[in-house]
Structures are given as structure tokens and as C-alpha cells.
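Researcher: I need the complex structure. Ligand is nicotinamide-adenine-dinucleotide. Inputs:
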Amino acid sequence: MAHRVTLIPGDGVGPELSEATRRVLEATGVEFDWDVQDAGVDVMDRYGTPLPEHVLESIRANRIAIKGPITTQVGTRFRSVNVQLRKELDLYCCLRPCRSYKGVRSRYQDVDIVICRENMEDLYAGIEFEMGKPETLKLIEVLELLSHRKIREDSGISIKPISVEGTKRIVRFAFGYARKQGRRKVTAVHKANIMKFSDGLFLAAAREVAETEFPDVEFEDRIVDNLSMQLVTRPEEYDVLVLPNLYGDIVSDLCAGLIGGLGVAPGANIGDDAAVFEATHGSAPKYKGLNKVNPMAMMLSGVLMLRHLDEDEAADRLEAAIAAVIEEGKSVTYDMKPTRDDPTAVGTSQVADAVIEKLGAA
Ligand code: NAD
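Model: Output:
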């Protein structure tokens, strides 16, 4: 039976990347019944919002979506569509596999790390108090009373909530992913030596889940600063990382750098009721409509989606076809050529043609 999937082309370069990705996904032979839904700057005039309710309804009904990037408009009353999607659908895990492909220019080879970043809590919960505001001064007063510490009056304050429930579900996700994908180890990342009651709780809850529910998968923990150093010296030692929101954000970009940058960095935001697959990069508006940018990160997000749909064999074939095109280095976009003005660079849709040809030849 065909998989019914919400397809959000997005804006900027999103529609061209989505079209290239749809074509290679269909070329695997897996059947899709696409529920195409527009969102982003291009629908603002029609619906008065970049994320109309019927788009959310479509994802809730289909439980799975793949989307092109969407521009966050600065200076409007609308929140980022990407943030809104995560909140509305409770997509609590940001999944970022970072794998080296031969032929990508990078200082590192053989990186194969999967990042599971908690998406809802921590300093990103949006509980912030502006310097000088009456409620901030009141909060400072209460905090001084309760903690017996002095806080400067001209401070701004951001709150960092980390809960047992929020931690356990992201850690369970990381272990479940490790088990399903046959990975060997999960590393919990924290700064529990300094933040005992937020990061300390994260570590304790992670340990409990590891010991009681997943004794078959190796577990260890690392302090985030130590991990950062080790990632750039010995990345091959790491497998699946599970992190609170802020460290997850920073370490995701560090690992994208290890594998050669945004052009090949896929991702997904996943919850218990829905999953949205998308590239890590943004909508690159200056390249809109030019058939120029690299579709591989979104195609690799399509590979993740195939695995999520239990289409592992098709996922393996598509990943191998993309890897072969990268290694050959012929039918790749400007950003994967030795120099950015290389005249042999091809366009977005030609990359899709090359991947489809490899799929056919396999
Ligand atoms: P960007 O990722 O769009 O661009 C950063 C740089 O990378 C640019 O030089 C761009 O040309 C290049 N680039 C990006 N994708 C590329 C690709 N596929 N192939 C080749 N080169 C590529 O980041 P930005 O400029 O900071 O953001 C542009 C817009 O995208 C903003 O409105 C931002 O909010 C939004 N954004 C959306 C998402 C999302 O939809 N998930 C993620 C990040 C940013």
C-alpha cells in the first residue's frame, strides 16, 4: 500500500529541493500518496499566516511529513514555522545523523554519529525575563530570598527547566533508535558537575532508563566541554549522542562541520504522534528559482523518512545512490566542487537525474 505523506515544498529554494527529493524517493519503487500542503511566506497573502491550520491537520492525520525549508520573516508577529511545528506537534526529538561520505571535502573521514537533541525544554523553553522590567526585579527579589545569593539588579534572566519526563522520553528515543538501527552505544551529554539540578537530573534520568530498560545497549556519559574536544580529536569514538536542547543545538552544528557542512546534513523532528523530515539548512532565498543549490541534505532526510517507514531496503539503496554520485563528483552542485565557480557544476534537478540513474543501475 502507498504511504500517505504530507509534502510541504516550503519557500525560497524549498520547492526545487522538494521536487528533486520527491523524484528520487519515487524512483526507489516505494509508493507514495503525497498530500501536498503549502506553507511559508508564499501563502501569507492567501491565509494570513505562514502555517495554516489545515497544514497541521494534514500532518496530524498522516503522522509523517517531509518539508522544504521555510523562511522566518523578521519583524512580523508570526513565530518561525519551524518552531511552531515542533511545539504544536510535540516533536520532542531533533534527530541529526552525521555521516561522512567519500568525496565530500572535509578534514575528517569515517564520522558516523547520530545526534538526538531534546527539542522542547532547557533554555529554549522561552521563559525569559528582560533586564529592568518590574517582573524581573520581583523575580530577582524572590531568588535572592530563596537562594541567599546576590543577583545584580541589571541582570536579564533565562530559565532552564529540565524534567524527568522530558528527559526520559528523549533518552528512550535515543536507545530505541540505537537498538533498531543496530548501533553500539549511547552517550548522554551534560554539565552535571555545575548544574546539579537540571543537568544532574538529566544524567540521573538517563542512567535510570539505560539500566532498567536498555541493558543490551552500552551507555556512557560525557561532560559537554570534554565531549567537544573529543569530537574534534577522536570523532570515531562516538555513536549515538543524547543531549539537552542547548548543547544539542551547538553539538549538531559541530558535527555538521565534521562531515563537510550543511549541503549533506539531513534531519528530522520526531514526536510520538508525528515526524517531520527536513534538511538542516535554510531556504537560501537568494538562490530561489535558479536550479542551483544542493538537494542532497533533503534527499538524505528522505532516506531517514524511508527508515522511519520501515522501508530499510529502499533507504539503503537510495543512500548508496546518493553516496555514489557524491564520490564520483561529476553531477554535483557548485558547493561540492573544488572551487565555487567550477563550470562543471550541475543544477539541483540534474543531481536528482544522476541519483535516479544510479538507482536504476543498482
Ligand atoms: P541558509 O541555510 O538558508 O543559508 C546559509 C548559507 O548556506 C547560504 O550561503 C546559502 O546560500 C547556503 N546554502 C544553504 N542551503 C544550501 C544548499 N542546499 N546548497 C548549497 N548552499 C546552501 O541559512 P540562512 O541564510 O541563515 O537562512 C535563510 C532563511 O531560512 C531564514 O529565514 C531562516 O530562518 C530560514 N531557515 C529555515 C530552516 C528550516 O526551514 N528548517 C532552517 C534554517 C533556517
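Model: Summary of the prediction. The pocket of nicotinamide-adenine-dinucleotide is lined by residues 69-72, 82, 262-263, 278, 281-284, 287, 293-294, 297, 335 (CB under 6 Å).
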